[in-house]
């Protein structure tokens, strides 16, 4: 398989994820910093510490003129399995699919410990500034996936190649 195909698919996934964001349903005033929730999966049910870090990062991004959207937050086990099943069909094998989609038992999205961020400029902003809030990119092949894995201002761990840990 051409090595650029997975990279192109990753970029396409960011673009597709951006299409899923919905209107903010938090009830916050337009001037209040907020995390824009998605319809499904949702920013609801996130770990409280992750939610606080994300809210602070979103406010800082807004000051820089960047709109942060949660394109995927907490997921049910069933939805995570659906994503994995779809990836197996798309990539032709579970081994390759696992590079992009974790099993329900291993997914930090299912545990409410991960968010996917869009649009692309927001994801790149988060890569650069997320560590100030304890938010780190986890996988080299997923510029949109962030977890709270360090203290604010701390150092992010080395990137894993992909969701399979490779």
Automatic annotation (TrEMBL):
Residues 1-22 form the signal peptide. It holds the Pfam family VanY. CDD domains: Peptidase_M15_like (cd14846). GO terms for molecular function: peptidase activity. Keywords: Signal. InterPro entries: DD-CPase-like, VanY-like_core_dom, Zn_M74/Hedgehog-like. Residues 46-125 form the D-alanyl-D-alanine carboxypeptidase-like core domain. One of its GO terms (biological process) is proteolysis. It comes from the Bacteria. PANTHER family: D-ALANYL-D-ALANINE CARBOXYPEPTIDASE (PTHR34385), PEPTIDOGLYCAN L-ALANYL-D-GLUTAMATE ENDOPEPTIDASE CWLK (PTHR34385:SF1). This is M15 family metallopeptidase. It comes from Solirubrobacter ginsenosidimutans.
């Amino acid at each position: 398989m051409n090595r650029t195909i997975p990279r192109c698919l990753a970029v396409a996934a960011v673009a597709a994820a951006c299409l899923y964001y919905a209107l903010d349903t938090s009830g916050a005033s337009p001037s209040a910093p907020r995390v824009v929730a998605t319809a499904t999966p949702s920013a609801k049910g996130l770990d409280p510490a992750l939610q606080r870090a994300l809210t602070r990062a979103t406010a800082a991004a807004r000051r820089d003129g960047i709109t942060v959207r949660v394109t995927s937050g907490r997921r049910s086990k069933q939805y995570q399995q659906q994503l994995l099943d779809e990836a197996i069909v798309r990539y032709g094998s579970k081994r390759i699919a696992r590079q992009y989609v974790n099993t329900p038992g291993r997914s930090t999205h299912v545990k409410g410990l991960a968010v996917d961020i869009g649009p692309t400029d927001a994801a790149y902003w988060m890569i650069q500034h997320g560590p100030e809030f304890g938010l780190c990119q986890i996988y080299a092949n997923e510029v949109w996936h962030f977890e709270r894995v360090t203290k604010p201002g701390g150092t992010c761990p080395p990137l894993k190649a992909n969701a399979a840990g490779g």
